[in-house]
Amino acid sequence: MSDNDYDLFVIGAGSAGVRAARFSANYGARVAIAEDLYMGGTCVNVGCIPKKLFVYAALYNEDYINSAFYGWKTKSREFNWRTLIDNKDQEIKRLNGIYESLLENSGADVFSGRATLVGPNTVVISGRKITANYILVATGGWPVVPNIPGKEYSITSNEAFYLESLPNRIIIVGGGYIAVEFAGIFNALGVETTLIYRGEMFMRGFDNDVRSHLAEEMLKKGVDIKFSTNISSIEKTNDELVGVCEDGSLIYADEIMYAIGRNPKVSGLGLEDLGVKTGENGEIIVDDYYKTTVDSIYAIGDVIDRIQLTPVALAEGMAVAKTLFRNQPSSADYEYIPTAVFSQPELGTVGLTEEEARKLYDEVAIYKSSFRTLKHTLTDSDEKTLMKMVVDKKSDRVLGVHMVGAHAGEILQGVAVALRAGATKSVFDTTIGIHPTSAEELVTMREPVPESIEK
Questions:
Q1: Active-site residue set
Q2: Class of the 151-260 domain?
Q3: Mean per-residue pLDDT for 404-424?
């Protein structure tokens, strides 16, 4: 047995760190883990879980309105922000306890406090030096706020989950997952919502048809989207905030929220002194098996800034545990990773976008369908669902599937299994649909978009 205190010391008890710690301990390793903020990391506390709970709250508004068309007598409705916040906090507290129990039951030692590296095999926490054969950095990321005058008056998603009261007006700056999700949430809860993005179209990296369709639907729902716009400074008066835009225009709000991305949380860890190489945004550089430039130090999750998704972090944590303590060098598989954006309407996607496919394949067929769902045939909503399939003409293999509409995430999870299995378009065509559902459209799209339109 090594003279070190532990076989593995994990810094960060988020999704990635907890998974690595638990399974390493299950494999017989002596494991310790440290967390200086909250058990469960971003996802549990200020990410996926509370965000989805907020989305559920927001969706009730539309369901309430539409229920009248289905015969329900609707009385005056009132939304209570504090009830949502308090109930959310209780659920997060419950999950914090579950994460701690999972670690303790696995046999891992849990430390509360900030751990820093002082050697390739040594960390310091609360003044105590602890040694380990391997150190795993899984500290996650932190929201970015630009260095502009008045930035201290802004908030990020971290603070949005704990606002004392619901603002009457909010400006959200950004064009990714978090920005569009919170724009939908606040808008549906009755907040006058402005979404600002510096580019010509938000959701960069997603299929272009999906991006434009989502923008159209969000505009229909009342979100004021301002593309090619950016705030240069924030001013505060007695009772409101003023976003001063680069073009000189002014936007007034009660809150200004930044959701322009998250940088790896590496400050003060001591990485530089040990020669651990980092990238332009602070991301830790690792090899295929998550080893850094120091042999005894590994890193996973958002801190390596590959794909910032909780299931990916879990896969990376599992891979490290297998690599270090089962003699099975492992890496997460990043191909055909499905994802959902809990915007309103929801966005789900797996595989290649049309733009990516055209760069990689000689001939690509595109199948698209835009329709009003059965649910809305009795309402006055003109919300449209979009489904799109990208196919390699030569092999008939389905390269990507994209959807904007209700339950897109639930639907695309099953499609992801098919794509990973190598399903062809003919497999989709010969699959019996479930009627009446939106999902059946995926197996009934028979004719590709004509080439002239396609390009």
A1: 435
A2: alpha beta
A3: 98
